[in-house]
Amino acid sequence: MSPTRPIRFFHRGAIVEVEGVAPTRTVLEWLREDARCTGTKEGCNEGDCGACTVVVGELPVDGAAVTPDLVRGLRLRTVNACIQFLPTLDGKALFTVEDLARPQTSPSPGRPKAGCAPLGSSAAAQAASHQRAPELHPAQQAMVDRHGSQCGFCTPGFVMSLFATYEHHGAAGTRPSRQQLADDLSGNLCRCTGYRPILDAGERMFDATPAPLDTTPAIEALLGLLRDGDSFAYEAGDETFLAPRTLEAFAAARLAQPQARLLAGSTDVGLWVTKQFRPLPALIYIGEVGAMKRIESNGGTLTIGAAASLEDAYRALAGRWPALTDVWLRFASVPIRNAGTLGGNVANGSPIGDSAPVLMALDARLVLRRGDQTRRMPLEEFYTGYMTNHLTPGEFLEAVEVPLENEAQLRVYKISKRFDCDISAVCAALAIELDESGAVRTARFAFGGMAATVKRAAGAEAALVGREWSEAAVASAQAALALDYTPLTDMRASAAYRLQVAQNLLRRFWLETRLARPLAATEVSVFATMHPEAAS
Hints:
This protein is of the alpha+beta class. Among the domains are: 230-285, Uridine Diphospho-n-acetylenolpyruvylglucosamine Reductase, domain 2 (2-Layer Sandwich), CATH 3.30.43; 291-403, Uridine Diphospho-n-acetylenolpyruvylglucosamine Reductase, domain 3; 409-534, Enolase-like, domain 1 (2-Layer Sandwich), CATH 3.30.390.50. 32% of the residues lie in helices and 20% in strands. The chain has 19 helices and 21 strands. It has helices spanning 27-34, 122-129, 138-145, 155-172, 178-184, 196-204, 216-226, 247-256, 269-274, 310-320, 325-330, 334-339, 342-348, 355-361, 458-462, 471-484, 495-513, 521-524, 526-530, and strands at residues 7-11, 14-18, 53-58, 70-71, 74-80, 93-95, 231-236, 239-244, 261-263, 282-285, 295-298, 301-305, 365-370, 373-378, 383-385, 388-389, 395-403, 409-415, 426-434, 440-448, 455-456. The protein has a six-stranded mixed sheet. Strands 11-12-17-13-14 form a five-stranded antiparallel sheet. The protein is globular, with a radius of gyration of 24 Å.
């Protein structure tokens, strides 16, 4: 293990060094209890409500594609501070609601920085009170002007999401539609105002005098100085956090510490700490391995590194298969997709995870690595039972490979109680290829929420292959689904409901892809009317 050192990151205009705190201390805990920056709120403490939304800036990965979150050399992304562990900030920049308003007079040396409470210094507090009121950021001023805040508890989180949108579109010279604003705010919950005035504020902020983040080049230079060595190691008491920066260093660390917990976006592992209070004495973080964040097309294959964010991964997938736009934008929220990774979602193995059905329908393969040895495995063979898989001690998921030479028609249907930001009761990914005569050449149907693991519907597929793509053939496949799966009843849906919905989705798929009079997406999907560009 590399020599340990403090956690170092940019915050409030300077490099901060933190040591002596547990590796599982969250960014939210540090902000509120240590830095006394209490603008960021604690709501659900599990990444659902968005009250704790902050923006993290980091240098882009070498060779990575240009994405909409790149702002003048710095990637700015919203994340939930309540489930992000503090060491994951090492080498990055942290922006909170205290950073947005600009003081109209320069504070004197020694005065506290605007927005964060002084640590017991009444003299400093009195001196600060004589400053003129700061000039609000356009996102903040628009929330005031459009009456977007009542109790105010959720407001800082909304403002930070709006700030990120403001920066992204300002850098690109574009202006978001109202629907794009709604998508960007999908991870922010408000219980008293309603979203109309908040969306009004999102539109209004672009009418103000431009106020972009003006320190980006300086921050970029500082972050470059913080990156040292092939690994970052942090230790507090008996707990360790290791963040290798190269694929080789990561593979070696995993081989040496097979008992350590791998950490990616902490969108699941974070809840083990905040809700279950589980100890995690040894963590190996995948988020610094640049080679595992890359997304590349080569030789008819789309290769998505296991550490690529869900947002980046689904952007690439939906760019090739527009039918995936629905599940992309409805997969959790923007802050969760920014932090979570495709590899983590697949390796986690949840039977209600939305990525596995999609990737199985696309005939994806997994690249598994142990030390310097790699092997490939079809995703459909990876799971051995409920949240168990074929990984051996010291082995990890390096990448996901998706064949691009795939002419099948694809649809993915997510059924959940809420339209946005909810867990699926059933997720169906259906792909079918017809021959020249209209008969089914291949069928790949994968369902989540129907068994202890995500798996293909082998019986339903067999009932269709070689037959005309007709209503009668679909009825046979619907009947076969009852033998493919034995779903459970839980808080999200009953077993009978799940089976009926799965059968109905097969019929809907046929209605949308039949040779005679296929239904247009706008005839069957609310989402398609919201996002006509995604209709296929």
